[in-house]
Amino acid sequence: MTDLTAGFDLTMDQQVALRTAATRLGAEFADVYGPETIERFLYASYDQFADRSSIAKFLPLLAERFARQRLGALAKVEGRRDDGRPVVLFLCVHNAGRSQMALGFFQHLAGDAAVGWSGGSEPGIEVNPSAVAAMAERGIDITTKYPKPWTDEVVRAADVVVSMGCGDACPIFPGKRYLNWELDDPAGQDVEHVRPIRDEIERRVRGLLADLGVPSVNIR
């Protein structure tokens, strides 16, 4: 069996955390994929974040969450698992502002009735603090979100792909439904200037959910 840890400088704690993550993912996808496929996705996902020293202690957790999303997406693409819920992918350049706010509204408003993902063509290091603060004003916590790249299986599994400023860098797959939302970039802006962007995103997300036939919950 290939040593998937080769090339990684892992602490003992990280090794234990990744083995534990592999066990959890193995249990979740036991009816779909074998241990080798699951571990391959887990370590590939770890590699996506390995050079970001600011989140070093969270790397195994981020890798597990990203691998779970990717495995779920692949299972849908391959027809191995599909619960019928619509899947929407929000994309921007850094996956730090617009797409994270859109995902926050989408998940909050749709609840369990739909699935939302986000990604970036050039993922940043952290979610924009002004976006976090602006969303907190609406009672939505996005502090646990993190910038991540899009992957082929995630794009292919989405029913709708919403792009926000990533232009030609956004992935295009024939037959996929695409929406392009022209929105100001909140990067480098304070909360006061992010609020109008946030409100426009909420309006568009509500419209998208209505178009998909997904009822929206109220925001307290």
Q: How is this structure best described in words?
A:
It is a single chain. The chain folds into two domains: about 10-80, Helicase, Ruva Protein, domain 3 (Orthogonal Bundle); about 85-215, 3-Layer(aba) Sandwich (Rossmann fold). About 45% of the residues lie in helices and about 10% in strands. It has seven helices and four strands; from the N terminus they run H-H-H-E-H-E-H-H-E-E-H. The protein has a four-stranded parallel beta sheet with strand order 2-1-3-4. It is globular. About 45% of the residues are buried.
Task: Break the fold down into its secondary structure elements and pairings.
Elements lengths: L11 H17 L6 H15 L9 H19 L9 E6 L5 H13 L4 E6 L8 H9 L14 H6 L2 E4 L13 E4 L10 H22 L8
Parallel strand pairs: 1-2, 1-3, 3-4
Helix pairs in contact: 1-2, 1-3, 2-3, 4-7, 5-7
Strand content: 5-15%
Q: Describe the strand arrangement of the main beta sheet, using strand numbers.
A: 2-1-3-4
Report the average pLDDT across residues. Answer: 91
User: Which percent bin holds the helix content?
Assistant: 40-55%
- Give the termini distance in whole angstroms: 52 Å
General shape? globular
CATH superfamily of the largest domain: Response regulator
Order of helices and strands: HHHEHEHHEEH
